[in-house]
Write a structure and sequence with these properties.
With about 400 residues, this protein is α/β, with parallel strands linked by helices. It has helices at about 10-15, 35-40, 70-80, 85-105, 115-125, 195-205, 220-235, 235-240, 255-265, 280-285, 285-290, 295-300, 320-330, 340-355, and strands at about 20-25, 30-35, 55, 65-70, 105-110, 130-135, 155-165, 215-220, 245-250, 265-270, 305-310, 370-375, 390-395, 400-405. Strand 9 (about 245-250), helix 9 and strand 10 form a beta-alpha-beta unit.
Amino acid sequence: MLDDPAAGRFSLDIVAPDHPVVLFAWSGHGTLFDTRAMALLGIGATEPDPFGGVYGRIPGTPIVNGVAHEYAEFGIRRKLLALVPNDALVAAYRGFAAQAAQLGFTSLQDMAVGLTHERALSVLRAANVPLRVRSICVPLTPNEPCATSAGPSDRLRAAGVKWITDGTPIERRAFVTSPYVDDPDNVGAFNFPLTPFRALVASQRTGEPARDQVLFHSVGDAAISNVLDALEATGSPSAWTVRRPRIEHGDLMFGADIERAAKNGVVVVQNGTHLGLTPVWAQRFAPDVFGQLEPVRSLLSAGVRLALGTDGIGRPLSPWVDMMLLVIHPTHPAEALTIEEAVTAYTSGSAYAEFEEDRKGTLTPGRLADLAVLSQDVFHASPSALPATSSVLTMVGGDVVWDAGVLH
């Protein structure tokens, strides 16, 4: 729908004249809304663009056309969820955690774009899910406060601040150096002016590293370069290495930037599901760009710390689908990982990415008994068999949080 120039509030007004409508792209980037929704959400006809985001406009006018990108759409999520009672959110978190435990997850990293950090923590405390949860602050402005303490539970932790620097290639908002082949006048966009962005990065080089870790959603090569430039302009490699700045996704991290990431102690958190988008990437990128997409083996070879996650939005996704994609890498088989490397990145790599490697991530005496007993031996399964994997027993801190019937 985002490719349709007619998509927007006036078309939606015709097909749904009696209802406020908001449509979110499945990728988490790109939103459409109708005129009734604008009224409900308090979006004016000539609403100014918010920090980090843009509204589509009728060409040649300031009139909002019903399309929102980046922090404009994140603001819409925030306003919609303000209409949802906390009890409903508590139930959603509990349902998510229950499904995740059946897949073998013991830890979740929650990046609640639609909630203030305080509200996210309040809901998580009330949900009291049996898994470990790291609640990551996603402010909508540089001045929005992040909570510094999650409360008494050792399973809920408030740590990290995430900034979203660009979109994705799906809606062609990932900020790239070479134009999109199927939209040659477009290179996407960086969400922030460079000078304020560097000031923002500089402000995040203080505080306790594990609590105040900075995370950047950065997909396009130009966005990644801007992030690395900002790190280098605001601190030495040794200063940043101890802080473990994270680049989430990094799908178009190439060549020299891989070396720069390693030098500055950047942790790359990739998602196996992205590797399954080969047909879309083939439409978006020229052959020389397509030929470098989604490095994972190259990251490990260069000494970049690699972590993996599902990038699940709204419901848990199977890590074993991710594993299948990582060990075959449909876009670039030469970049595939072994199953041992993939499992290591998913477990100890992910623990390192949140400063928790001394507590969890490996089966080691004295560390937390967070573990899953799997339904098959994944180290000897064929790639095509991996998605069928589930957990028959999941434990967190030695407590059983999921039992498929194996305990008697």
